[in-house]
Fold each of these.
Amino acid sequence: MDKFTIEGITPLKGEIEISGSKNAALPLMAAALVADKPVTLKNIPKLNDIYTFSNVMRVTGARVDFDEDSRSMVIDPTNISYLEAPYELVRKMRASFYMTGALLGRAGRAKVSLPGGCAWGPRPVNLHIEGLKAFGAHIDMEAGYVNAAIPGDRLPGGHFELSPSSVGATINLLLAACKAAGTCIISNAAMEPDVVQLCDMLTKMGAQIEGAGTSKITVHGVDSLKGIEYYNAPDRIETGTFMIAGLMHPDSELTLTNCAPEDLGVFRDVIAETGGAIAYDNDKIHIKAPDIIRPVSIKTEIYPGFPTDLQAQWATMMTLAGGDSTVTDTIYPDRFSYVPELARLGADISVKNNTAYIKGKAKLVGASVMSTDLRASVSLVMAAMNSRGTSDVLRVYHLDRGYEDLENKLNNVGASVKRVAEQA
Ligand code: EPZ
């Protein structure tokens, strides 16, 4: 298991190109399985989650050819015959559960392993299952697998209200509903850009979808979906991560390229309150750090609210702010495994219920810290770059799931991050 050895304290100066979105690419890949012909996806990031999902799709008989240099992926679904997604792959990457909606949408049947939990607690899929049943699927559970089937092969249709709103459930229901016999309505649907982009791709394939980006999505089933070429969006969470990283040292000045600022929601307004100078210029974002970061408390919400996927990065920055703040996660109340690790670096931060209480003005000092999940890991890297001396961030395989080429992107703007192979 590799670790990062990081020398601090380093300001970040220069340009970083944002990669394609992980959380948008995965549903686009799943949507290709419902097409009658091959689909080409552009701007797909080289990430372990993308490789894992490609392998899950190949199990069905689909061809997945990923040209890493051009970031272009061709998915040929025409030979799909094995309508299953096995535990040993699904447990590695929970979004593999999208195979349920995709295989139901394509062939009226699916046997998919229930995904595991994750570092910060249970990740239920009850809404996915209840929604598919509401649209007319027959679903039973057997030995950790979901067995789903549609009598007559095409979903009759129906109405389901998500409570709470769920990105994954919205995506799964959309994948199953596109070729329904009737009309499927999703209330309290997720409005994330990842969902909007999926609806856009499905519509270009011939689906009839109304209300994408609102909390009510209506899908009128069609007989077939054609193969197309589609360009994946830039990663809004990677963008937010580097925007925060660019504020943490007073001498930092970053330009992010290949961005989609329109996908950032309220995050744009919140980050401006820190006092950093942030300018938006089409697909570029210029960030200049403030002399002293203003303390800004946040509470995560569904889109367009503050994303839960940026709360660990935000809390990390707030340890360096000129005053005290709080970070509350209303989506995942337990998503604070990074807090004890920040404390090892000298941060004054504690958690009560679903809120982190942060004292600013920390003088961070390098130490060994443990990654526990994707966003916690990148937060520890950000803290280590602002800690005096040497830090080791262990188990960086978490990072490789969701941040493409992270150490080179950071070293190219002045960081000192070395990947060291660790004996297992
Ligand atoms: C997606 O996960 C993202 N993953 C997550 O990003 C992100 O944190 C999350 O959305 C919230 O924005 C991908 O897109 C691959 P949810 P998902 O279903 O779809 C509850 C990252 O770091 N819920 O919107 O699994 C759930 O417990 C990852 O890139 C149910 O109760 O999230 C949570 O409290 C981590 N029952 C809330 O809904 C269900 O059936 C939102 O979860 C489903 C969800």
Amino acid sequence: MLGIMGAMKVEIDEVVSKMSRVNRYEIGSCWYNHGYIEGKELVVVCCGIGKVNAATVATTLLHKFECTSLINIGVAGGVGAGIKIGDIVLSSRCVQFDVVVDNTNGGALGIVDKFESAYIECDQALVSKIEKTIQGMNIACRIGVVATSDKFIADSKVLKDLTAKFAPQAVEMESGAIAQVCALYKVPFCTIRTISDTADEHAEGDFASNMRQTAKISCEILKRFVVGK
Ligand code: ADE
């Protein structure tokens, strides 16, 4: 079964509203919505913001619901030249850029314990299938690094530094943690993020005004992907 997770209610509502035969289960203060879209079985959950919330829910989806792949949907701050609000970023790989486990030699930034690289690979087959879904929708789509931390980024200096280190296309607060869980369990994972802001000094205002509309775009892509259109 496919597991879908988003950090905020607005990031999953448009998917849940299209589901039929829904059963809701409360586990660890989150509601898991099990049901169908056009006969396709899925479970959809709002995990809450941040890496620990995301990892907790990802693990529950794998254990309790026996999900065989996970997709994260939602909004993100766009990074890089020309990226615009409303564009899509699909994760080819994820990095947790606030992690420093080994502080020798200046610190191995982003390398999580048990991993060899800061980049955690996403499932390329899943990415390609979602990319094909988007091709019919007339939306700009980039595939690249999604960078995660437990902080909302609204600072062009931080972005410049982050770009030099990891060249991400988007910043947000969950995907790296979900990618880590999925890598540990060897379950395919990808994130679909619509750009709500560009993580600069305007980010807070842009996020507040664009979050609802941009979150809907990720939901629409996910629904089309699930039904195979
Ligand atoms: N989600 C959406 N915009 C973001 C930003 N600028 N930083 C972190 N997470 C985000």
